[in-house]
């Protein structure tokens, strides 16, 4: 009989998920694919209306896009960056108020954040009491140069964050990435190992890479880690300097697209049931089949 490649002392437990901790393990999610204009106050009002509408329709988790309060551009980041820690952000105040009033969890997309002499691309997570319970500064800045297609360098104006962000909310343990962060499977894997049920990526993928692999990346992150993945993009504005692909999507733990849309402004509502994670991991136990005797991923910040 061939000997098993697994040794008793190996600790290749699957990334465990705990269905008893979240207040809700079955709930409605809303992905608000918003139009973004040059008028920041209008964008804040519009986002609030979309969130209220989603909450009225039963959403317990609402996700906004990357850079939803101003058009995404290197010129705009320093002009409109808000100091979140000083409590001087109208965008954050609105999100906090609406999360509390409607008793919902909000993944607040991202906004340019000023902190000391730095500007970050930052996503705040709001608990149902309106408090900020997580803050993710985009870890991987989007620097791309495909001549004739797209050239963009976030690092001209933005500073990269240094921390992984996994947040325990009423609607589960959620790992946060922002757009380009989705290109890095290691980040998603570490979130899964830390017990995330859902990965949320506010994103504004551009047209060329968006058409090629925005959906592939979402489905791959979900399949690799056997969990839910949600993305939320701004609506497409072809008159803007940076044109977003759109196609906000919810993917299930077998890589199945559960809900998606095209590129217009729209809120996608869908159901999440975390028991599917357990079912899929029982069907196909990638966790115990993993060969950590020949490869391993190190969570540097945890040791
Ligand atoms: N805003 C972004 O990070 C865009 C990422 C993107 O388009 C990609 O190809 O990656």
UniProtKB/TrEMBL annotation:
Q: What are the record keywords, sorted? A: Hydrolase
- The question of whether Hydrolase is a record keyword is answered with yes
What is the top-level taxon of the source organism?
Answer: Eukaryota
Q: Which GO terms describe its molecular function?
A: omega-amidase activity
Q: Which GO terms describe its biological process?
A: asparagine metabolic process; glutamine metabolic process; oxaloacetate metabolic process
Q: Which residues form a coiled coil?
A: none
InterPro entries associated with the record: C-N_Hydrolase, C-N_Hydrolase_sf, Nit1/2_C-N_Hydrolase
Q: Where is the CN hydrolase domain?
A: 27-274
What family does the Swiss-Prot or TrEMBL record give for this protein?
A: Belongs to the carbon-nitrogen hydrolase superfamily. NIT1/NIT2 family.
Q: What is this protein called?
A: CN hydrolase domain-containing protein
The species is Zostera marina
